[in-house]
């Protein structure tokens, strides 16, 4: 499994919004701080907005903001929204689309354990956790 730029950038964008609570953040601000194309971020923010993760505000002070508290978003939620399945192998992506060999496949045990480990990690880390980590890395230079 490899996380695409869309998933990585969506997570970085959500972190930017979380780092600036109570204010709207413009796409060009995120693009500049994260060194990402603003055109690509516009595509990603549309996905986040349609899912209800962010809202936009028009006007001179406009931009985007989180619809919930950072602690209410997990890394897993954001990655599944942008990436789809996080399953390590295709035969585990859809429970209805089981491989005909699944009852006789010893390697399926490995893939199930890997899937549980991946989900355990991404579902246990919230945006609030990443905000705290970013503040440590930046010397707590963000407003609370």
UniProtKB/TrEMBL annotation:
Keywords: DNA-binding. The lineage of its organism: Bacteria, Bacillati, Bacillota, Clostridia, Lachnospirales. The keyword DNA-binding applies. PROSITE patterns: HTH_RRF2_1, HTH_RRF2_2. One of its GO terms (molecular function) is DNA-binding transcription factor activity. GO terms for cellular component: cytosol. This is BadM/Rrf2 family transcriptional regulator. It holds the Pfam family Rrf2.
């Amino acid at each position: 499994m490899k996380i695409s730029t869309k998933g990585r950038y969506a997570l970085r964008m959500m972190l930017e919004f979380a780092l600036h609570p109570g204010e709207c953040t413009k796409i060009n601000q995120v693009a500049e701080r994260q060194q990402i194309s603003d055109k690509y971020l516009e595509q990603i923010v549309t996905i986040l907005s349609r899912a209800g993760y962010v809202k936009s505000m028009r006007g001179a002070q406009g931009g985007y903001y989180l619809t919930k508290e950072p602690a209410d978003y997990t890394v897993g939620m954001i990655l599944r929204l942008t990436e789809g399945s996080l399953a390590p192998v295709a035969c585990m992506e859809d429970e209805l689309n089981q491989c005909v060999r699944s009852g006789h496949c010893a390697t399926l045990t490995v893939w199930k354990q890997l899937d549980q480990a991946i989900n355990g990690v991404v579902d246990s880390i919230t945006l609030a956790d990443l905000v705290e980590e970013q503040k440590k890395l930046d010397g707590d230079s963000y407003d609370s």
